[in-house]
Design a protein that fits this description.
By secondary structure, this protein is mainly alpha-helical. The chain has one domain (11-231). It has helices spanning 11-19, 25-45, 48-65, 75-93, 121-135, 140-151, 156-163, 167-191. Residues 185-238 are annotated as: Disordered.
């Protein structure tokens, strides 16, 4: 999310201004949040084209449904909920994928930023490709929970709000997803010499993620502010 000057209107104010007819308010909301929406979509779908389309669908829906927002959650939570649902819709329509349960429940965040030297970027990219390929084998609900909690650093409670499920459900989905990925966890840890970044999950339940590992959004930051279609490919299409 882009930094917001102290004197800038809040997200809620911008959404209200959009509903009232301000042609620029929604564009400012998009500017603030599209990078993180893109990151969630890309990690969930594993495909830049699909992620761009999912974010586009989500922003169009948010643009049209802004009048239904009642302030029961933060605007950013509302936007993420719409984006995650758009991603899950696409995943559910895709061909079913096989999964193999295992008995090891390592934390996924130990793989997100492999602990290798800066002189080996190709190794890092290959590890991330393998991790994304493994994520693609998970059921949609497990993948979404892992992306939010382990990859994007959301507290379990906030991830539960985004997914509209109890916190216990988020925890169980994450645990099952980590267990399914355990063989890859062991394999990749062996490839990186057994070095382990460790469990960075703080006492407040928020994971300390590494945003540099997530492809940043690119695209026309000054595009038509009132038109969510201007964000098409907000994460940068190939």
């Amino acid at each position: 999310m882009d930094s917001v000057p102290p004197e800038a209107p809040s997200d809620s104010d911008l959404l209200a201004q959009h509903v009232a007819g301000d042609p620029d308010a929604f564009g400012e909301l998009v500017r603030r949040h599209r990078d993180r929406l893109w990151a969630v979509a890309l990690r969930t779908l594993g495909d830049r084209e699909e992620a761009a389309d999912a974010v586009q669908d989500a922003l169009v829906k948010a643009f049209r449904a802004a009048h239904t927002f009642r302030g029961q959650s933060a605007v950013t939570t509302w936007l993420h909920r719409i984006t995650v649902n758009a991603c899950l819709d696409r995943v559910r329509k895709a061909a079913s994928r096989k999964t193999s349960p295992v008995d090891d429940a390592e934390r996924l965040d130990q793989l997100l930023e492999p602990h290798e030297s800066a002189e080996a970027p190709a190794v890092r990219q290959d590890l991330h490709r393998q991790l994304q390929k493994a994520l693609d084998t998970l059921p949609a609900e497990q993948r979404a929970a892992l992306v939010l909690v382990d990859m994007q650093g959301y507290p379990v409670a906030e991830a539960a709000s985004i997914l509209e499920v109890p916190t216990g459900t988020v925890k169980s989905r994450c645990a099952r997803g980590r267990a399914r990925l355990a063989p890859l966890v062991r394999h990749l840890r062996a490839e990186t010499g057994g070095q382990n970044p460790g469990d960075e999950n703080g006492a407040d339940g928020r994971n300390q993620t590494h945003e540099a590992s997530v492809p940043p959004a690119s695209g026309p930051r000054d595009a038509g502010a009132s038109d969510p279609a201007a964000t098409k490919g907000g994460g940068g299409r190939p």
